[in-house]
Amino acid sequence: MRIFVLVKHSPSPESLLRVSADGKSLDPTCLTYDINEWDRYAVEEAVRLKEKHGGEVVAVSVGTNCDATLRKCLAMGVDRAIKVPAEPGFDASMAAEAVVDVLKCEAFDIVLSGFMSQDANNALVGALAAAKLDIPFATAVTELSVEGGEARAVRELEGGYREEVALPLPCLVTVQSGINEPRYVSIMGIKAAKAKELKDHPVKLGDATVSTERIYAPPTRRAEIISGAPLEVAEKLIELIRSKGVLR
Amino acid sequence: MLSDLTLSEEQKAVREAAREFAEKEFPKYAEESDREEKFPFELLRKAASLGFVGLHIPEEYGGQGMGLLAYCLAVEEFWRVDGGLGMILSTTFGSEMILMFGSEEQKEEYVPPVARGEKICCSCFTEPQAGSDIAAVRTSARRDGDNYTINGVKTFITNGSIADYYVVLARTSPGAPKRSMGLSVFVVERGAPGLEAKKLTNKLGIRASDTAEVYFKDVAVPQGNLVGVEGEGFRQAMDFFNLTRIHTAFQAVGIAQGAFELALEYAKNREAFERRLADFQVTREKLAVMRTKIEAARLLALQAAVEADRGKPDPGLTAMAKYFAARVAQDVVSESLQIHGGYGFMGDQAISRMYRDVRVLEIYEGTREIEVELLARSLLGELPSKLGAVRRHPLR
User: How confident is the model at residue A33 (pLDDT cuts 50, 70, 90)?
Assistant: First the structure.
């Protein structure tokens, strides 16, 4: 089985966030990067599929600075890695375009990715890539198996419901966190990764589909203490509730 | 991390792997292992299965062959989360002596199971009357035909009651002209008749680590268990410590980094006088100075480890790194507890444990006083160190 897994080298949500001087981007100096949390589960699931069915797992990442994340995938058991040295930023369509450029050059049975990225939280790249490739896809998958030319996936729905879907191969699946317990990177894995292929796949991307107007920190919300006589306080309170549109 | 200048991609990957492992696994064991003074065997097995235990041991002897610095980076990350649990990486302690001075047969027999985390090693130098002054050891090894018979008491032995292999410094020539002469090193296996160990309890810190008193009563070992050259034990021990003290420097950097992170987090969230602690100039200075000291200590530790990986540790650079990093760790952990105030003092926070754990770093593996003496000897040309290469000032 030929398994592809899409991974993103993303800033940790616990990083210190600072808006750059241009007001349209984040200052990368204070950011700590790692493999996107959801993609870690996707890599584990991909490696488990290979362990069960044999074949090859290939990791694909878009970004000029994603080597460490791709090496981590290789250390976790991925066989080779492809880096697309482009910076689509938060433009999910461009990121999908970059990924599709790679996938069109390769034969694959299934493509896995994390459900969403821990920075933009768009949950778009997987679905957009599947659409551009015109293959079936399932999102937010919590259970996955592949048998007899089809993938069976259990999807997470709102309200605790589950939906089971069958997808003919080739297909794309975005993986919800908790689908498995990702393995630790071992020293043996790090050593083995050294001999594995990590190659660049340059692409020429089209025009951006998203432009960022402004990035800003949310205004600090402050508590207000209403003081005065009880009747006065009650009146101020009603006025406040009304002004927020709760009472008409 | 700032001090990445000298690290290869592989070394960075090792550091990150160690960080992830410690961050996810250590919190499950830290509090209980400390409270119950329980060695974390399960954690050791997990770490060993991932290759962390024998990181610095050559591949031909069952290790990962990644070099001392890679091992030290794992030590730093483990100690960043918890010092007592970080001691699982010291289950190889003593195997370095066999690697440096042992015969091929000894290396093949004793090192691989230790490197794989299946067996535990310990080093028996200290005695009730001989700590920093290891030339004062009284444990004797009397030549008796093809055997040596060992008699004596060793104390404060890390891994002493759980070890499979004991690397022991003993006096083979009682009448030698100098105290440092006539000492030799032996390896003794667990279960040898006359070998007994008693776990020492109620330590101040690193309580997850095993510490024991070890008794040798007419313990017979074959001549083949002599490690290195008879009579060269003191010199071998000095070379051994020049290497293993680098690990300790990284233990210190790790615990200091951990304490700093806790302090920063607390200072950003705790409010007093209607401001965050982090908004007070007095706290800001504390944080700035803590972080600077840690970075300086880390660079010294890196320098010592890189030197060792180049071929041979430099005793002066090792002493400098161990002295400074252990000193910094005391300061930083103490300041972090100060920032935590009453919550730090009450004992149920990680910083309280760190405050107890950090203390050993200026005591074991060479006291602060011994490190300073070694530094001075290095500066004055009494030890072979780069620190002795001092130019004469033109205005002298």
Answer: very high
User: Which H/E stretch holds residue A142?
Assistant: strand A137-147
Measured between CB atoms, does A185 come within 8 Å of chain B?
Answer: yes
Start-end ranges of CATH 2.40.110.10 in chain B? Answer: 121-231
Residues A71, B13: C-beta atoms closer than 8 Å? yes
- Across all residues in chain B, what is the average pLDDT? 96
Q: Is the pLDDT of residue B10 over 60?
A: yes
How many A-B residue pairs are in contact by the CB < 8 A criterion? 46
Residue A238, domain member (yes or no) = no
pLDDT in tens, A166-181: 999 999 999 999 899 9
Residue B208 has pLDDT above 70, yes or no: yes
B-chain CB neighbours of A186 within 8 Å are 17, 49-51
Helix (H, G, I), strand (E, B) or coil at B53: coil
What CATH number belongs to B121-231?
2.40.110.10
> What is the per-residue pLDDT across A56-105, written as a single tens digit (0 to 9) for each?
999 999 999 999 999 999 999 999 999 999 999 889 999 999 999 999 99
Q: Which residue of B has its CA nearest to A72?
A: B13
CATH code of the domain covering residue A114: 3.40.50.620
Q: Decide if B17 and A188 are in contact by the 8 Å CB cutoff.
A: no
- Which are the contacts of B239, defined by CB distance < 8 A and separation ≥ 6? B100, B101
Q: Contact A186/B24, CB-based, under 8 Å?
A: no
Q: Which of B2, B12, B16 to mutate to test the interface with A (most CBs of A within 10 A)?
A: B16
Assess if residue A33 is contained within a domain: yes
Q: A123: domain range?
A: 2-200
Q: Does domain B9-115 have CATH number 1.10.10.10?
A: no
The confidence score (pLDDT) of residue B3 equals: 64
Tell which A residues from 45 to 84 touch B, by Cβ distance under 8 Å: 67-68, 71-72, 75
| Within-domain flag for A160 | yes
| C-alpha span between A130 and B132 (Å, rounded) | 68
* CATH value of B235-387 in 3.90.650.10, 1.20.1260.10, 3.40.50.12780, 1.20.140.10: 1.20.140.10
The answer to whether residue B1 scores a pLDDT higher than 60 is no
Query: A67-76 and B9-36 are packed helices; what angle lies between their axes, rounded to 10 degrees?
Result: 60
φ/ψ of A197, rounded to 5, equals: -80, 135
Containing H/E element for B311? none
- pLDDT greater than 80 at residue B21: yes
Q: What secondary structure letter does DSSP report for B366?
A: S
Tell me the per-residue pLDDT of B250-297, one tens digit each, with 9 for 90 and over.
999 999 999 999 999 999 999 999 999 999 999 999 999 999 999 999
Using a pLDDT cut of 70, give the percent of chain B over it: 99
Residue A31 to residues A10, A216, B147, B283, B340, Cα–Cα distance (Å): 9, 16, 62, 23, 26
Query: How many domains is chain A partitioned into structurally?
Result: 1
**Complex ipTM, two decimals?**
0.93
pLDDT at B170 over 70: yes
B346 inside 8 A of chain A by CB = no
A17 in B contact zone (CB under 8 Å): no
Q: Tell whether A29 is within 8 A of chain B (Cβ).
A: no
Residue A139 forms part of a structural domain: yes
**CB contact, 8 Å: B8 with chain A?**
no
Q: Does B49 touch chain A (CB under 8 A)?
A: yes
Q: Which residues of B are catalytic?
A: 365
**Spatial contact of B287 and B332, defined as CB atoms under 8 Å apart:** no
